[in-house]
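Exercise 7. Predict the joint structure of the components listed below.
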Amino acid sequence: MTAAKEMPTHFLSSFARLEHQLGQGGDAWFHRVRKEAIGRFAELGFPTTRLEEWKFTNVDPIARMPFHSAEFRADGLPTERLAELPLAHAAFEQRCSRIVFVNGHYNPQLSSRDLPDNLIASSLASAIERNTPSVKQHLARHASVQHQAFVALNTAFLQDGAFIEIPSGVTLDAPIYLLFVSTADEPIASHPRSLIIAGDNSQATIVEDYLSVGTGVYLTNAVTEIVAGENSVVEHYKLQDENEEAFHVATVQVHQARSSIFTHHSISFGGALVRNDVNVALDGEGAQCTLNGLYVTTHKQHVDNHTVIDHIKPHGTSRELYKGILDDRSSAVFNGSIIVRKDAQKTDARQSNKNLLLSENATIDSKPQLEINADDVKCSHGTSIGHLDEDSVYYLRSRGIGAKEARSVLTYGFANDVLNRMKLDAVRVRLECALLARMSGGHTQLEGL
Amino acid sequence: MSTEIDTLEQLVNRDYQWGFVTDIEADSVAPGLNEDVIRLISAKKDEPEFMLEWRLKAYRHWVSLEKAQAEPKWANVHYPPIDYQSIVYYSAPKTKENPKSLDEVDPELLRTYEKLGIPLQERAILSGVAVDAVFDSVSVATTFREKLGDLGIIFCSFSEAVREHPELVQKYLGSVVPYTDNFFASLNAAVFTDGSFVYVPKGVRCPMELSTYFRINARNTGQFERTLIIADDDSHVSYLEGCTAPMRDENQLHAAVVELIAHDNATIKYSTVQNWYPGDKEGKGGIYNFVTKRGKCLGNNSKISWTQVETGSAITWKYPSCILQGDNSIGEFYSVALTNNYQQADTGTKMIHLGKNTRSTIISKGISAGHGQNTYRGMVKITKNAAGARNYSQCDSLLLGDKCGAHTFPYLEVKNSTAQVEHEATTSKIGEDQIFYFRQRGLSSEDAISMIVNGFCKQVFRELPMEFAVEAQKLLGVSLEGSVG
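Solution:
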C-alpha cells in the first residue's frame, strides 16, 4: 500500500483546482460528500495487487499516468468529429430517449430534445442544481466510498452524469440510451456518475454505452447507482467498446426492494485495462436478479469482472452467467461472489462462468465464491475453462466448412448464448454484428446504436 | 422439521471418546522458544550438524516473519493471538533410550494405544497395518519393521531416519515444503520433534498399509511433527494417519508438515482421519490444527492421492496439495470436513500443473452443524507449459442447522489454452422430502439423516483403505449422527 499511497498526488491537486473553480457556491451537503470522498481516497490510495479484490489486476498504469481533469474542457466534442461517431441506427434512434455525455459532461446538442412526459431524465449536474430531493436521498448512499478507492475517486470528482427517475407505476415503452463518449486526444480522466431511480411498480430499460473517438490513453471511471423500488422491473445494459489504449473502471451498485426484478447485461469488447464491479443487494423479500456478461479480448487487453450478489432478505433468486473469449496475449479475471446472509432463507442462487481460450498466451483467473450463512438455501456455482472442441471443428469441416470459418462459427455460438438473453433487439443485433466482425479477424468498433 | 432438528441435536451432543489423559512421567523442556531450545531439541535427538543448521536457519526465518507479523490472516477462521513463548516445544514420556522391542516400551504407553484401538503388538493386529506411534514429541514404537526391511522399505521414526539415513533426509527434507514456505512451516522446521519417515525403493509395492498414530498427551505442549515419504521409481505405498488428544480447556497448537515425493511411475496414497479434540460445546479448548501438506509428483506418470476425513480440531487450516511436475502425473484430493459446535475449518487443496497432460481431481464435501464454519479454499493453477492439463473439481456443502456457515473460495488460474478446467459447487440442506421418503419406509429420522450424510460422503469414503473407511464412518457417526453402518 505504501508505494501506491504516494501515487494519487495529481488527482489530489486537480481536486484542489476543482474546488477552487467551483468556489464555495452550491449545496453544502454535496460539497461535504465530495470532501469526504477525496479524504477517503487519499487514505486508500490506488489498490495494489496485495489486496484480495485486486489480486489479478494491476492498476499501476492508471496510478502512474498524469491525467488531466475533464472539467477544464467541458466544451465537448467539436462538430467535425461527429462524423467519427455514427450515432444513427435509425430504427433505434427514433424510439429511444438519448442522453449524450462527452468526457463525462452532458452535451445538449447531441441529446434528444423530446423526452417522454412521464419520465424525469436530465443531467445529474442540473438535478443537483435544482436541489431534487430524490438526488439527495439516494446519491452516494449506495455506492460506498469506504472500501472502493475508485468509487471514492469518482465521488470526489462527482459533477455530471445521468439522472433518471421513473415515477411509480410508469412503464416506459422505449429504452433510455445513455452514451458516454470520450475524446482520446489527450489523457483525460472523466468520472461520469449516474443515478437511476425506478419507482415502485415501474418498468424501464436503460442502456449505457461507452465509446471513444480517436485513439489514445484516457481514463473513464464511471459509477452508476440503481435503486429498484418494490415490484419494479429494470433491465440495464452496459456496453463498453472503447479504444484499446483506454482505461475503463466502472462500478454498478444496485439496491433492490421487495419483489423487484433486475437484469444486467455487461459487454466488454474494448479498453486496455477494464475493471467492472457489479454489486447487487437484494434487500427485499422475493427480489430477483440476473447478471449476464460477455468479455471478448485480444492483443494485450485485460478485463476484470467482479460481481457481488448479496442476498440479504429471504426468497431471493439470482442467476448469473458470464462468458469470456480470450485471444492473443490478453487476460481476463472473473470474481463472482454470492453471499447469503443469516436471514436470507429460501434463497436460490446459481452462478456460472465459462471461458474459451483461443490462444496459447491468453490467461484467465476465475474465482467464484459462495459465502452461505443460512441453511435452507439452494446455491451452486460452476466454472469451466477450455478450448474449442476439435471434434466439433471436425464435424463442421467434414461438411465443407473451412477451418477458419468453423472456428468462427463455434466461437460465435459460444458467445451468442449470452447475447440471446438480451431483450432489446437493436442492441443484440448490433452486438452480434460486432462479434461476427471480430471473429472474422478485423476489429470493427461497436458503433453507437 | 422439529424432530429432525431434535435428532440432530441429540446426536451432535455426544461426547468426545478419546479425551482421557495418560498419567506418565514426561521429560519436558520449559515453555518458550529460542535458539537454545532448538539446540536442546537437536541435541536430545542426537542429530547431525546439518539438521541443527537447517533448524536454526528456519528459526531465524520464523523470527523475521513473526517480527513482520506475517502470521497468515487470510483464512476464514478466527482465534485469539497465539503466545508462542508459552508453548512447550519438547515433551517426551520418560522411558528407556531407544527401546529395541515392544517389551521395553512402557506398558502404560501400550495401554494408551490399546485404549485408542491401536494395538502395537504385531500379533494382535488383524489387518496387516504397520504402525508408527507418536506420543507428544517422540515416536514410541514402530511395528513390522523387520518384515518391511526385508523388502528394502524404510519405515521408522523421523529421528531414527536422521541418524541412520542422513543422506536421504538431507536430499529430500524441505524439497517440497521449504522452511521459508509459510509461517507455520517455518515454525515446524525449527522445532519439529518427530514424525514418520518412509522410503520405498525402486519397483517395490509395499505389501501393507503404513500408518502413524499421533497422540498429544502433555499439557501446554505443541505438537510439531514432520513426515517425509519418498516413493522411488515404479513403487507403490499407502499411508494412513490418525490423531487424537485429551480434553482440555486451553487450546493446543499442532503444526505439522508432510512432504511426499513420487518418482517415475510411483504412487503414494495418503489418508488422514483427523480427530483431534474439537473443544467443548461452547467452543472452549480444542486443538489448532495448522498443517502444511504437500506432495510432489516429480517423475513422469507418478500419482499422489490425498484423502482426508476432518472431524476434530477447534480450528483446521490445512491444504494438502500436489505439484504435478512430471508429465502425465496425477493428483487427487478427496475430503470430508465436518464442523460442529464452534469448530472452524478452512481447508482445501492446491493443484499446480507444471508437466504435460497432468490431471487432477478434487472432491470436497463439507458438513456444517451447530455454529460450525466450514470453508473450502482451493487453487487450480495451469502453468504455461502444462499442455493438455485436465482438472475436475467438485465441492459440495451440507448445512445442518441455521447457525452454521459454508463457504467456497476456489481459485482457477489458467495460462494454457489446451487446459480443461471445471469447477462445480453446491450448497444445500437435507430436504424435508428426503427425510419424509425415509420415514415413509419405516426408518427413523436419525437413521435417515445418517444415511443421507453417509451417501453425501460416499465418494470420499470409498477412497479410504478398508480399515479406515470403517473408522471414518464411525467417527462421523459419533461426531454427528449415531448409528451408522
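Discussion. Residues 389-449 of chain A form one domain.
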